[in-house]
């Protein structure tokens, strides 16, 4: 059969590890050019704080995920219902109530500028480097070494984005292409046995007689 070429590979597919612990913890000091400024280091994971949050009372800074997990784990589970739950700051042990932290958007302008002055290399090992937010976006959607899933429906193959795009995707056996003779979508692995007339009849039967011919 004569078929249309397969669809183009969709760019900016998200990394499948974007919600993993490693993706949400701070950037390792080896990735930060010039090292991490001591006031910008997460006191829990010891990395450059990612999606940074500061405690409103004492001002100590952490990754948002790190401090949320800490406060949840350190809160007394037997606390009475409707009690305002609290936990100690892991840096100074000052008591902090759940929810008493300021995220990035609540920071003063000078603090945001200081944080953005840090330059972070891509954790995947490619040549990219940029401000923390730029590196996070690159790592999630643009890095050729990020792990993605093949975008073809039903395909379970996972791998580095560059390999999926250039090696697997063009020849994915589950790719659907359209036959120019009958206009039916056909999976690539079914092309050798595709019969236009037979498959058209089958498609018509499944559309108009979904339960088979009437008795």
Task: Describe this protein's structure.
- With 215 residues, the chain is α+β, with helices and mostly antiparallel strands.
- The chain folds into 2 domains: 1-16 and 148-215, no CATH class; 21-142, Herpes Virus-1 (2-Layer Sandwich).
- It is 26% helix and 15% strand.
- It is built from 6 helices and 11 strands.
- A 3-stranded antiparallel beta sheet has the order 2-1-5.
- The longest helix has 13 residues, at 196-208.
- The relative contact order is 0.14.
Indicate how many domains the architecture comprises. Answer: 2
Q: What is the annotated CATH architecture of the largest domain? A: 2-Layer Sandwich
CATH overall fold name of the largest domain:
Herpes Virus-1
What is the strand content? Answer: 5-15%
**Main structural class:** alpha+beta
Distance between the termini: 35 Å
Give the full name of the CATH homologous superfamily of the largest domain. Zinc/RING finger domain, C3HC4 (zinc finger)
Sequence of strands across the biggest β-sheet? 2-1-5
Total beta strands? 11
Order of helices and strands: HEEHEEEHEEHEEHEEH
Topology of this protein?
Layout: H1 21-24, E1 52-55, E2 61-63, H2 64-74, E3 86-88, E4 95-97, E5 101-103, H3 109-116, E6 120-121, E7 129-130, H4 132-142, E8 147-149, E9 158-160, H5 161-168, E10 176-178, E11 185-187, H6 196-208
Antiparallel strand pairs: 1-2, 1-5, 3-4, 6-7, 8-9, 10-11
